[in-house]
Every structure is written in C-alpha cells, then in structure tokens.
Amino acid sequence: MNPLPTPIVDVVEVGPRDGLQNESRTLAVDTRVELIHRLVAAGVRRMEAVSFVRPDRVPQMAGAEEVLAALPVREDVDLIGLVLNRRGAERAAETTCDELNMVVPVTDGFGTRNQGAPVERLLEEAAGAVRVARAAGKSASVTLAVAFGCPFQGVVEVAQVAEVVDRVADLGIDELAFADTVGVGVPTQVEALAALVRGDERVPRLRFHFHNTRNTGYANAWAATRLDLSSYAGRVSLDASVGGFGGCPFAPAATGNIATEDLLHLLRRTGADVAGADADDLEGLTGTASWLSDRLSSPVPALLGRAGDFPAVAS
C-alpha cells in the first residue's frame, strides 16, 4: 500500500469567536481587538473574528461591527464572520470580514435551541446567507453543527447528516465543515463523514471543527489528516482555539475546542505542511493564551504552555 501524501493543513483560529462565547466574563471590544492583533502577530492568517448574533442571547459576541471596524484590512489575513441566519449575513455583508460562515445544525433539537428554528428552516436561511455573501463579494462556508452527535437527540447517524449535506452542497458554497459541537466524535466518524463529500465537485474545500470534551479531539484531528484528500488537492482545514478555550452556550457540558498551540505541535511533529498559522515558533500563541487567561479569570485548558515546546525553540 502506498503511503498517503503529506497533508496540507489549513489551521483556522476560532478563539476570538468560539473561544469566548461560553465564558462567564464578557470582554470589551478593545480587548477582543487586541486578542486578534496578538493572534496575527503570532502567525495566524485565517480566523473567525466575530459572530453576528443577538447580543441578548450571546452577550460575549456583542459589538461585532465595532471589532471589525477597529481592525486594519490586510491582504494576508482572512477574517470570518459567523452567522446564524440571513439577518446575520446582512449585518456581516456591511463589514470588512472576508468570509461568512453559516451554521446549520443537522438535528431539529439543536437547531431549535441554538437558532430558534428546525433544520428545514435553517437550510432556507443558509441559502439566503450564501446569496448575501455572493452579492457582497465575500466567500461563503457552511458548518454542520452536531454532525458527530447531539446533546438532545443523542447519536446522529451518517444517513441523517447525508441528507443535510446534499442540500447544503447545492447552495454553491466555498467550504463545508463538519462540527463535533459537543465533543463526542471518534476517528471512525471522521472518515465516515468525509466519505459523504469525497469527489463531490459541489464541495471545493473540506473543514472540521473538533472539541476535546471527552479527550478525543486531537485523535479526530489526526484522523482528518490521514483522509484521502485527493479531492481537495491534498488540503484539509481544521478549527482550533488559542489556549483551548471555547464551548457552546446552548450545548450542555460542551467544553473547549482543541487548542491551536497543541494542534500545531502535533502537526509539526507528524510532518504535516501547515498553512494559516506558524507551527515553528509557538511562544506567541502560548503567551497569548496566558494573556487571555488573565482577562477571562479562567485557567488555560491547553497543555503546551505548561509542558513547553519540544524540541525547545532557541531563544
């Protein structure tokens, strides 16, 4: 058997969005802007910077327009705005974000609690969001929430995900993401879900979003790099959050994302080609995680900052 080609992994930093939305302390706009500046200085080149949601539902994400207005436009940095419906997309279209990422849960139970609507209605909202993005000259991606398991339905069968995938793929998206929103996924599911879109020309790019709630997030990330990625020019995108902060306010017991610095250490040591972040010097990320920990009054879940990089980076 021939070995798989070296994967190219595009790391997507989600700390300014998913990393903050479930924290008890709400950070001011200027603090969130500084977080993004620190991440860019640490080498991050693609990130979810804001979420266009109702501030009464997710106060941690209030002021999305103000955050983006305070950031310089850089050709080498792509900023993503997460949206939950067409109205959020319309807000995002008026800003400098480069990409709109629409969330579509694959279960009615999660869709109703997270976005106030069942899957069928959210597919309609996604179609509208993609049209808004296109009219504004922005990229459009869709994340399928609870694709690995739902806190309200329980086990989610691949066939159920496949029905939503087929509808979303027809929207003319630039990227499709499978999200393990509550951290219940295992590597065999990574392969099974990827198989749904392998060779499907309607899905130009593939992305995964993992949480480490049950300590399987990094195993799932590794599994994603071992997929047959020939349909995607050998590339796969992986979400991660600086420090491992994160969680969903509408998903019980959902803890942090896989940590950007821990993921980059894994990718570098296993020989993957990394894009979207600097895997050679992680001090900027571990320092940013400590800085963020102080402002959130919350300990850093990631491990690299405690153990230190290996091999140690010469100062």
UniProtKB/TrEMBL annotation:
PROSITE patterns attached to this UniProt entry: PYR_CT
Location of the Pyruvate carboxyltransferase domain: 9-283
GO MF terms held by the record: hydroxymethylglutaryl-CoA lyase activity; metal ion binding
GO biological process terms, semicolon-separated: ketone body biosynthetic process; L-leucine catabolic process
Key words, A-Z: Lyase, Metal-binding
InterPro entries: Aldolase_TIM, HMGL, PYR_CT
Family: Belongs to the HMG-CoA lyase family.
PANTHER family: HYDROXYMETHYLGLUTARYL-COA LYASE
The protein's name: Hydroxymethylglutaryl-CoA lyase
